[in-house]
Amino acid sequence: MWQLYQFPLCPFSRKIRLLLGEKGVGYELVRESPWERRDEFIDLNPAGRTPVMVDQERGQVLIDSAAIAEYFEETVETKAMINGTAANRAEIRRLVAWFDQDFYYEVTGPLLFERMQKRIVHRQPPDAGALREAMKAANNHLDYVDYLIDHRTWLAGATMSLADLAAAAHISVADYLGGIDWTGHEQTKGWYSGLKSRPSFRPLLAERMEIVSPPKYYEDVDF
């Protein structure tokens, strides 16, 4: 069985967990705190980042969430998540990159650093200015998601895709960390509620990070 090295609030690991859940691929979670820079983990991934997937029986190691997603998309035919025409697939990949890069660097990454890593690693309080900037950026990104949902059934088109999973992974982490103001984002809220109700999503919502607690509504499908 595959082992997935991750920590509860890693958005890239959450994206992979949602993908594996939708495809029905079994795996075992292995808790990894990449900021600890364990020698054994660095041996697996010299970049020192999660997620990493390992199949010990076959001696196979998969590194980087984009590469992992492509691997399972190519090897597991069930529930294609990079689908449609070449143009459709390009749009899916564009939106995955949007959330994994832009949303992460403007929203998820700063929130993780201020609200989680500072408390756990540095024993410091968060910077209020940095939090305000991250929340402002989150609001702008949700405006764009509203726009997409106004024009499409799912983010990238007519069917659910890896773009939806990537977006939901990052938004769920930002929401856990109190960085999302849902006011005025009814389109995104409805889309996200639908994803939260899926069996693949429920295990993520039940997980907790030590020291850091989510808002009371975090697990609720109707919030």
From TrEMBL:
Q: Which InterPro entries match?
A: Glutathione-S-Trfase_C-like (IPR010987), Glutathione-S-Trfase_C_sf (IPR036282), Glutathione_S-Trfase (IPR040079), Glutathione_S-Trfase_N (IPR004045), GST_C (IPR004046), Thioredoxin-like_sf (IPR036249)
Q: Which Gene3D superfamilies match?
A: 1.20.1050.10, Glutaredoxin
The chain positions of domain GST C-terminal read 85-215
GST N-terminal domain segment(s): 1-80
Quote the PROSITE patterns the UniProt record gives.
GLUTAREDOXIN_2, GST_CTER, GST_NTER
GO function terms (MF aspect): transferase activity
Keyword Transferase included in the entry's annotation? yes
- Write down the superkingdom of origin: Bacteria
**Pfam (any one):** GST_N_2
Keywords in alphabetical order, please: Transferase
Record bears the keyword Protein biosynthesis:
no
Q: Which PANTHER family match?
A: GLUTATHIONE S-TRANSFERASE GSTA (PTHR44051:SF8), GLUTATHIONE S-TRANSFERASE-RELATED (PTHR44051)
Name of the protein this chain belongs to: Glutathione S-transferase
**Which species is listed as the source?**
Sphingopyxis flava
What does the organism's lineage look like at the top?
Answer: Bacteria, Pseudomonadati, Pseudomonadota, Alphaproteobacteria, Sphingomonadales
